[in-house]
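Example for tutorial group B:
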């Protein structure tokens, strides 16, 4: 999936309502900003999902950047131990647990810029 597709707002239907065309528990994507604002008005019917919530592993990005550690980016490879809410990476002399909620997906090109930036420090 592309970064744009991963960041597209998604909502989970959490309660039934009259003339509901979608089953409770199913996901809806917000195609427009106006539709997203409309769905946000009904938090008792729709739960706005974070970009990483309820994604299949095959839909997860290969690269993410940290939103808490500026300038830090990660490649999520098969070698990383993955959890529902994050992944474990190896640092020299220690392991580090990264939470998906503290990251945003990025492209390979953006990752390389972050990686080269850390080498030049």
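The residue assignment follows.
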């Amino acid at each position: 999936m592309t970064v744009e597709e991963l960041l597209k707002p998604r909502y989970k239907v959490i309660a039934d309502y009259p003339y509901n065309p979608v089953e409770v528990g199913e996901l809806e994507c917000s195609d427009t900003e106006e539709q997203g604002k409309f769905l946000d008005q009904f938090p008792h019917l729709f739960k706005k999902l974070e970009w990483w919530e309820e994604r299949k592993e095959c839909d997860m990005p290969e690269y993410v950047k940290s939103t808490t550690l500026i300038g830090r980016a990660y490649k999520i490879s098969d070698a990383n131990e993955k959890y529902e809410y994050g992944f474990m990476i190896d640092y020299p002399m220690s392991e580090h647990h990264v939470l998906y909620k503290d990251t945003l997906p990025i492209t390979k090109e953006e990752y390389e810029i972050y990686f080269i930036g850390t080498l030049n420090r």
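Strands lie at 10-13, 27-29, 46-49, 63-66, 73-75, 81-83, 86-91, 94-99, 103-105. Compare this with the pattern of hydrophobic and polar residues in the output above.
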